[in-house]
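Issue 218. Parser rejects a valid record. Input:
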Amino acid sequence: MSEAVSRRYAEGLFAAAQIDGAEERVLDALGMVCDILDSEPQLRKLLLLPSISCMERQNVLRDVFSGRIEPLLLHFLLLAMNRNRLALLREIYRCYQQQYLQQNGMAEAQVVTAIPLSEKLADELSAKLCAVTGKRVLLRQSVDPELLGGIRVQIGSEQMDGSLRARLEGIAQSLAGDRL
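Output the parser choked on:
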């Protein structure tokens, strides 16, 4: 249920941002707000604490974000707080981002490698993924040394695993199957 609620809120925010032509600015600011709330657990706790009046929590929200984010987004945050939906903010951000990417013919690719990709390799990978998907691809890179080598890419529900670890596991499974 929370995903459906988050999606509705994200769609409403996106529609309002489109009217102002502020879709990207709202996306960036919403990401920043989520990052701040994640890095400041005391602030997050204060904003979610039901024992503090809604008016006091709204004042804190205004003090922290007024002038730093789009007025539309601040109004949205106040509305979300009034409706006890601020805890869903990270999920709302994810849904908003999906809608933004889809609207702009883009796709997000989660790329995991054993070591960081050079800028040249990242550009080449992005170009190849663009050719495969037919969309502009936004790479989100992370490092997992347990892959040993190679790469794992996920775009939406599609996953491609070209990691050395996956290959070794495949070999081990085929060898185990030969013994039976």
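Fixed in the parser; the record now loads. Residues 2-20 form the longest helix (19 residues).
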